[in-house]
Amino acid sequence: MSEPADTASASDDPARLCEEARALAENGEADRAALLFEEVLARGDTPHRARAALGLAVVLDDAGDVARAREADRAAIATGDPEYGPRAAYHLALTHERAGEHELAAPAWRAVVEFGNPAYLPPAHLALARSADDAGDFDAAREHWEAVVATGDAGYGPLAAHDLAQRLLERGEPARAQRMLAAGLRLIDRDGAPYAYARLAVALGISYLDQAIGAFAASLGDPADPADPEVGPLATELLARTLPLRGRGGEAGEVWRRGLSDPGIAGQVRARLRRDFGGEDEDADPADLWWEPVVEQSVTDGTLPALAGEAFGALDHMYALLAVRYADGPGERRPGETREVLGKAVRVPSDYPWGPLLHESFAERLRLAMGTAAPNWPET
Predict the structure, then answer these.
(1) Residue 55 sits in a domain of what CATH number?
(2) At what angle do helices 138-151 and 157-170 cross, to 10 degrees?
(3) What secondary structure letter does DSSP report for 79?
(4) In sequence order, what DSSP letters do the residues of 167-232 get, joined into one string?
(5) Is there a domain that residue 358 lies in?
(6) Terminal-residue alpha carbon distance, the chain
(7) CA nearest neighbour of 242 among 217, 223, 276, 275
(8) Which of 100, 147, 158, 243 can bridge 184 by disulfide, Cβ–Cβ 3.0-4.6 Å?
């Protein structure tokens, strides 16, 4: 008995076959779906060829047959279909990206761009930007990053703005970085994507820091020339205190040292350097306190936390030595033990760079008070 005419016609309809294949794939019947997609492809250059090829590529990829999936993607791309062509190129690029084959993914991403379908341009341009960036081609990368931002895509645009801004900051172009970051921020719904907004906002703040660093450095001029006595001290402090925020503490130390060596501004620079010291007698001479030069140098070098750690470490060690003996009852101490423990505590600072200064200070105080020199215990 022959099949009804309308049934035979439906089974021959490529659009109907593609729909059946899609339903089968969604229900987990990948093999049957692949057969139907292949049947459509076997019919040659039909209007549904691109759709069937892409469907076959997805089914095969899900089944682990990546090589045949890529062939199907290329077949869909070759049709030039404005919808399924870029989707197939996108899928092909992802198979290469997933395998870490970024160089092979690049041609597929370029194919996506050539199709010009707005739905797939943002990820394609972003991938090409990162590929060019990895290759060291900044100009090409910048064009693709800018193209992503120009699409207005809220997902990929902020990522591109951040990546490009980072490179611009590295190249010493904070003003351009600011414009790109501002454009990226306009694409984000702050309430809907608070973390993405915060990421760009922080980068924008960093760009202003870099711009400020450039302005402060420019105001100081050539290091070989004397600084302006009016703005030099302020510019020195602002530059020296801003540089560490960008991880440039070594440069900050050089800025302080330059200011302290300039006779025209050295006094004001030292006052600014010491503005946080506090607690000292206005009539006292800091030079009379052995630790003042140590603290001042550590502020200049940005090593004050390390110095504080050393001081507290020495205090902790000395306290432990003395406290253990204090906790023991007098009857439990052997003769001479107290002096021995005190000697160990006195020697603790000797291992620190500032230890000799402490010993010299005590020796001088003892000489003035008793008329005798202190024992040379650091070397004992």
Answers:
(1) 1.25.40.10
(2) 150
(3) T
(4) HHHHTT-HHHHHHHHHHHHHT--TTT-HHHHHHHHHHHHHHHHHHHHHHHHHHH--TTSPPPTTTH
(5) yes
(6) 116
(7) 217
(8) 158
Q: Is 245 part of a structural domain of the chain?
A: no
Find the domain containing 76 and state its range. 7-117
What residues have CB less than 8 Å from 165, skipping those under 6 apart? Answer: 177, 178, 180, 181, 184, 203, 204, 207
SS3 312: helix
* Gap between the Cα atoms of 157 and 165, Å rounded: 12
Residues 6+ apart with CB under 8 A from 18: 36, 37, 40, 48, 51, 52, 55
The top-scoring range by mean pLDDT among 64-73, 272-281, 316-325 is 64-73
Q: What is the pTM of this model?
A: 0.77
Helix axis angle for 49-62 and 14-26, nearest 10°, is 20
Tokens for 139?
A: 């100009």
